[in-house]
Amino acid sequence: MSAAVAALVVVAVGADFGTAVYAEYQLSRAVRQANDLTVDPFVAILDFPYLTQLRRDHYDEVEIKAPAVERPLIGKAMLEATMHSVDLSEATWRFRPDAPIPVAKLESRIIIGSVHLGRYLGIRDLMIEAPPAESDDSTGGTTESGISSEQGLVFTGTPAGFGKRVSVSVDLSIGGPDRTTLIITPTGILTGPDTADQKVPDEQRALVLNAFRGSLPQQRLPFGLTPTAQGARGSDVIIEGIAEDMTVTLPGFRR
């Protein structure tokens, strides 16, 4: 490749990258304004080249991640959405707030950190881990986004009235009439490697287990999706919904 051709390639790639960054900024600002967020969310328009997608009024994949969003009861959580095959015909690349946005596949998530969930449960030092079998699995979880299964999670912390760190096996589920309630059900005390390895006397077993029990309502997913999975990733609890052939508007990200 001649120097002149190489220079043209560098210029073309640079122009494409710069235009994509500007488009991501525009979308980030639009999402913030449409949802009354306190900071610009992270936005990524994936796949290359960007200008080819723009000319087709179609993005292959878009990611939106908004940290520290005010949430009922728990204080703050991260909201995420991943859109696949995004039709820009009505919204345009500037993403007009009330314009319909058809997407072939939509994923949305609420990510609740152990600190915020621990405060809600009254366990200030709460740590969350995936089920032991999955922690040793290099595939990273049971869903595409790396979320563990909903059964057998490991919650570790110091429950009130006991005074020692203990590890508990926990199942997660979604309930409530509108399926927006995260239900946390402890199922047993865990001891041995990779746990607090703290035994609990029989007379205190119910007290300890109940300290890890909880019901967290009003956890509506971005764009109103119905939850399809819940589990752990890192030390976070994640509620996820996946749907196909959806049409959304930007204000639905938070509301």
From TrEMBL:
Protein name, UniProt field: Mannan chain length control protein LmeA
One Pfam family cited in the UniProt record for this chain: LmeA
Annotated region described as Disordered, given as residue ranges: 131-150
Biased composition (Low complexity): 138-150
Organism, as annotated: [Mycobacterium] kokjensenii
InterPro entries, per database record: DUF2993 (IPR021373)
